[in-house]
């Protein structure tokens, strides 16, 4: 009889324990995985380097003989610094402002004839040919941009953005011209030539810029970026309005940024 009672008690305890365990299994939920991701809000500074393809389109009036148009390919490397501030509006959108200053090795040269003109003389009995040739060059020693940025996060560490704003820069133009005058009718005579000294003129320019880029975080404070900018510095006169120089630029550059105390964002998975 005692054995029967003990067996029944043990069976009851096992049944109650199993039911409680089953109930706990139904009610128990696994803990949510939490990852800390460093957001984009905050200030930053960085360095960049790249290459630029510039175009200086010049209308030149050499020695008041005739106007001619020419183009310099003003290409070269660029190196600079940037600083900015970002605001992460939500898990997907980032707004920001950025300023940068660049020094460049951009320079373009051209040599050869610029203009030629036939001049009647001797009461119509003879003709002279006046030719202007020379060496001209354009360069962009430095430029800077002040831009807004707006982008979308592909994931918490990868930003794709558009950018645009104000551009300023220094465009330098130089020339050395040679005027040659020769009688070609009724007989050909030896040409008389005059060469001007080499002269340079530098103008500060204000224009605009527009571009796009991508930036990827690879640590709490560090990120790398790749960016394209189009810069238009407009048209300005040189040498007392005898030359008009229009300048445009295409820039591709890579950079690295250091963010100051980026705000942590908690992401749940």
Write a compact overview of the structure shown:
The protein has 269 residues and is mostly beta strands.
Report on the architecture of this protein.
The chain has 269 residues and is mainly β. It has two domains: 1-30; 39-125 and 135-177 and 199-268, Porin (Beta Barrel). It is built from one helix and eleven strands; from the N terminus they run αβββββββββββ. The chain has one helix at residues 2-27; strands at 34-38, 42-60, 68-88, 93-121, 126-155, 158-185, 192-195, 199-217, 222-238, 243-259, 264-268. It has an eight-stranded antiparallel β-barrel. The chain has a two-stranded antiparallel sheet with strand order 1-11. β5 and β6 form a beta hairpin.
């Amino acid at each position: 009889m005692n054995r029967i009672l003990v067996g029944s008690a043990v069976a009851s305890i096992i049944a109650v324990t199993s039911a409680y365990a089953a109930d706990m299994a139904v009610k128990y939920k696994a803990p949510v995985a939490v990852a800390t991701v460093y957001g984009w809000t905050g200030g930053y500074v960085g360095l960049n380097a790249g290459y630029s393809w510039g175009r200086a389109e010049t209308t030149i009036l050499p020695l008041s003989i005739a106007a001619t148009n020419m183009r310099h390919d003003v290409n070269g490397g660029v190196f600079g610094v940037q600083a900015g501030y970002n605001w992460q509006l939500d898990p997907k959108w980032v707004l920001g402002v950025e300023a940068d200053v660049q020094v460049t090795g951009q320079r373009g040269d051209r040599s050869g004839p610029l203009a030629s003109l036939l001049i009647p003389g001797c009461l119509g009995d003879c003709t002279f040919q006046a030719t202007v040739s020379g060496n001209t060059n354009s360069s962009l020693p430095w430029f800077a941009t002040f831009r807004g940025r707006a982008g979308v996060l592909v994931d918490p560490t990868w930003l794709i953005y558009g950018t645009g704003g104000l551009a300023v820069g220094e465009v330098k133009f130089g020339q050395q011209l040679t005027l040659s005058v020769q009688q070609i009718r009724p007989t050909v005579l030896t040409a008389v030539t005059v060469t001007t000294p080499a002269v340079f003129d530098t103008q500060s320019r204000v224009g605009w810029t527009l571009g796009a880029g991508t930036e990827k975080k690879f640590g709490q404070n560090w990120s790398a970026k790749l960016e394209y900018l189009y810069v238009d510095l407009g048209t300005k006169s040189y040498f007392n309005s005898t030359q008009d120089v229009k300048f445009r630029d295409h820039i591709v550059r890579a950079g690295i940024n250091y963010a100051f105390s980026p705000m942590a964002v908690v992401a749940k998975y």
